[in-house]
Amino acid sequence: MTTMNGKVALVTGGSRGIGAAIALRLAEDGADVALTYRGGSERAEAVVAKIAAMGRTALAVRADGADEAAVRGAVAAVVERFGRLDVLVNNAGVGAVGPIGGTAVEEIDTLLAVNVRAPYLYARAAAPHLAEGGRIVTIGSCLAQRVAFPGAVLYATSKAAMTGLTKALARELGPRGITVNLVHPGPIDTDMNPADGDSADFQRGFTALGRYGAPAEVAGAVAYLAGEDGRYVTGAELAVDGGFAA
Ligand code: NDP
């Protein structure tokens, strides 16, 4: 395990699911962790309590990623509380399913605001605070690499945009010794995509391993990219998808 002692990480959408697993894993590796959430303060505080029980410092910040001022405020709160920021994990996201003809303009705008604009805004707000060795890791989706079934136009569009963000930012921040990478999960058992949901068997069928992943399996990949072992990896896309895109 790479030690993250002395590092400070900010995980968006860290109150549950994949984000909570990432927050806990980075804390386990030694980092102090701030996490954002939109509405679920009880679950956010439960993650904070678990991190505190590990002997690390944690902070939960309510911040809707669709709100630019809230994003700026969240980054400012982290820097004020911890005095530094080393790792940004752009994890918060929302799903959408349905044919393109049935998508209302408001639905398009809302999803793009959370899945595309927010990671951009977080990177913009965090970049000035990141020092040499800093990390940005964004959570994309296997649907950015292989759209195996219809009904995913809006969601796949939003996640594919993270490739551009990642590669362009890797070029921009590389000269400062900061890496920027993208992790593409496959079907992962969370509130967003429960392993006993209506479409779970259908999704399982597209993976090579024939199973859902656990949030901790995605967190392990993020920990590698955020840690010292990932220092020469940048602008990369890492599929943690059970072979969904194979
Ligand atoms: P969940 O729905 O289980 O959790 C979402 C998290 O994001 C919660 O902490 C939630 O906070 C937060 N969040 C949602 N909207 C906002 C917002 N507008 N502003 C701030 N925080 C917000 O999702 P997952 O853990 O399943 O997904 C995490 C990421 O992984 C997403 O980007 C998703 O697209 C991606 N992903 C997930 C896959 C899966 O199969 N689960 C597969 C591929 C990618 P709150 O609790 O307050 O609502």
UniProtKB/TrEMBL annotation:
<dbReference type="InterPro" id="IPR036291">
    <property type="entry name" value="NAD(P)-bd_dom_sf"/>
</dbReference>
<comment type="similarity">
    <text>Belongs to the short-chain dehydrogenases/reductases (SDR) family.</text>
</comment>
<protein>
    <submittedName>
        <fullName>Oxidoreductase</fullName>
    </submittedName>
</protein>
<dbReference type="GO" id="GO:0016491">
    <property type="term" value="F:oxidoreductase activity"/>
</dbReference>
<dbReference type="InterPro" id="IPR057326">
    <property type="entry name" value="KR_dom"/>
</dbReference>
<feature type="domain" description="Ketoreductase">
    <location>
        <begin position="7"/>
        <end position="191"/>
    </location>
</feature>
<dbReference type="Pfam" id="PF13561">
    <property type="entry name" value="adh_short_C2"/>
</dbReference>
<dbReference type="InterPro" id="IPR002347">
    <property type="entry name" value="SDR_fam"/>
</dbReference>
<keyword id="KW-0560">Oxidoreductase</keyword>
